[in-house]
Amino acid sequence: MTVFLVGSGPGDPGLITVRGLDLLRRAEVLVLDRLAGPELPLEAPAGCLVIDAGKAPGRVAMTQDEINACLVEHGRAGRFVVRLKGGDPFVFGRGSEEAEALHAAGVPYEVVPGVSSAIAAPSAAGVPVTHRGLATHVTIVTGHEDPAKPETQTDWASLARASGTLVLLMGVGRLAGIADALVAGGRDPRTPVAIVERATSPTQRVTTGDLATIAATAAAAGVSSPAVTVVGDVVAVRDAIGWAERVPLAGRVVAVTRPRAQADGLSRRLADLGARVVQAPLIRTEPVPGDPIDAAAYDVVVVTSPNAPALLLERIGGDARALHGVEVAAIGPATATALREIGVVADLVSERAVAEALLDLLAERAAGRRILIARAEEARDLLPEGLAAQGAEVEIAVLYRTVPVVPDSEAALGADAVAFTSASTARAFAAAFAGRDLDGVRGVAIGPATSAAMRELGIPVAAEAADHDLDGLVAALVELLG
Questions:
Q1: Distances (CA, A) of 133 to 188, 270, 332
Q2: Residues 319 and 417 in one domain
Q3: Cβ atoms 7, 40 nearer than 8 A
Q4: For residue 402, which phi and psi values (nearest 5 degrees)?
Q5: In a shared domain, residues 349 and 427
Q6: Residues with catalytic annotation?
Q7: Model confidence at 151: pLDDT above 60
Q8: Of the ranges 36-45, 140-149, 268-277, which one carries the lowest mean pLDDT score?
Q9: DSSP 349-373
């Protein structure tokens, strides 16, 4: 096997390369940098050995020599090793030292480049490192040199005299001295400066000033690492082209309680709007075994959840043509979309994803018809009882059940809002945090059934989606938090 030195990018998990993500999803051993972020390790396969090799001011999980030895050990053992590093492995990432150690040990390796924070952080803050008429070149320098060296290798006087943009990595702790050295070397003390903390994350923050004031301004603002400092006239362009703070959910944290396999669509939409998404899957679905379904025996097949179509297809023999001549009704647009994915176009689709809406749609045509309801084990009985009351012959096919999942952390409790996509997610949330004070939770419900379950369980309902689907849920979150 090969050891892969993978750059994870500047912080946003969406900025890892396609190659890097593919390797991560196949890793047997994952050696983690602190700046690789909390989300990407979740992409590693089950059973992957995860090793924390992070370094932070005042805390070192492993020394560089220990990291090198770890990579060599697992590489020699023939394991699929991914060394996930923040930014790019070869831009102040000490990836070259790890490559040298692997080469010396005869262990094959590959370097997978990443998006460097030296370029990405200024960009995310609306600061172009080059700009026609302002800067024709950019210099990247570390503000944290090897403490074992007797003297600095950085010629701050030469950097001060050079025109163009200066990007400082890991320089927050020495900012005052660096600013003084640049001014002493000839840089105008009025030169604009921007410090970008936690670049590309929803908690990104930008602090601006000039060389004369930036150290005091940063201290007053409590600026801390990880941060990238940009020095140069290009910083002034930020007022015109800065974009990150303008997205609706910039800086907000939203917990998504949907099962992990179904959460991607909602999470992506929220991330596109600037939110930091906390994955807090509190339930998972599991199929319920049952006898084959003879679809031709029914006049109407009612599908009550996006989870049901794929399981229904299995129970009718794996061929959607078995539903030919049968009227198919779907609860809401999301279920209709899931049906189309198995090759079935619903004849009836309720506008709202609630049983009441589907019952209104079917009530007048229910009398004397055989109706099969494909649903979850714990679904409400409102729909079958209502159709039976209208004279229908109703049967229920239980396709799946929802099972509580123990949350990985309590991060959901500290989120700005918690998105609930079903009554079952509300029940699982209440069970997961039983005995905890939930008064501070700002719950956002996908529809009235979910809201009712939340209130019954003591979970505050801060908002309810007007349209009872994911689009409506996102709109409600934007209205509440934007």
A1: 18, 37, 55
A2: no
A3: no
A4: -100, 140
A5: no
A6: 33, 55, 170
A7: no
A8: 140-149
A9: E-SSSSHHHHHHHHGGG-TT-EEEE
